[in-house]
Amino acid sequence: MDLCHVPATREKGWYLALMAPNVKGPNYAWLDPSRLYCHPQGLRDCVADLLQPFQGDAIDMVAGIDAMGFILGAAAAATLQKGFLAIRKAGHLCVQTVAQPYTDYSGREKVMEVRTDAISPGLRILLVDQWVETGGTMRAAIKLVERLGGVVAGVAAICMENSEGGKWIQEHYKCSHCVPPRLQPRFDQHQ
């Protein structure tokens, strides 16, 4: 699909076909959504689909998770006319932070951090990331927000896999993703 083509009928998830499969090996995610972000209508429809379940919900700020969650998170924040908070991998913020260790989708131990002065008690945060595979990264972001007294208003990602961690997040928080139910098994199996 080229970056200018817009289908006549745009059902939820049509833009998923813009994603490219991994050609570099097991240290990379199995799909690369970056081409979706280059497609103006695809990006708009993706963000609209992510935000649709939160229509009318109280959201004070959007937080995007390092690094690809920054793209969707900033787009969602602009659409909602809210501020954007970057939740970073450790070592990138030069201000006072709180840190949370986690294990990412590839099994690597990492640390995530967020600035301490951006979240006040009761602030309602929509957490956005590109993908929730095992749930480790998103759960670390949830812990950071909650440790600072914030409230997780929701979790949004292009795909939330039905892994143990993905299911836990969906059971405990309002969630949104872009994969239609008929395609979910293919995404869960990385096909």
From TrEMBL:
Domain Phosphoribosyltransferase: 55-178
Pathway: Purine metabolism; AMP biosynthesis via salvage pathway; AMP from adenine: step 1/1
Keywords, sorted A to Z: Cytoplasm, Glycosyltransferase, Purine salvage, Transferase
Predominant cellular place of this UniProt entry's protein: cytoplasm
Recorded superkingdom: Eukaryota
One GO process term, biological-process aspect: purine ribonucleoside salvage
Location of this chain's protein in the cell: Cytoplasm
GO molecular function: adenine phosphoribosyltransferase activity
Family to which this protein belongs: Belongs to the purine/pyrimidine phosphoribosyltransferase family.
Quaternary context: Homodimer.
PANTHER family from the UniProt entry: ADENINE PHOSPHORIBOSYLTRANSFERASE (PTHR11776), PHOSPHORIBOSYLTRANSFERASE DOMAIN-CONTAINING PROTEIN (PTHR11776:SF7)
The name this protein goes by in its record: adenine phosphoribosyltransferase
Organism: Sylvia borin (Garden warbler)
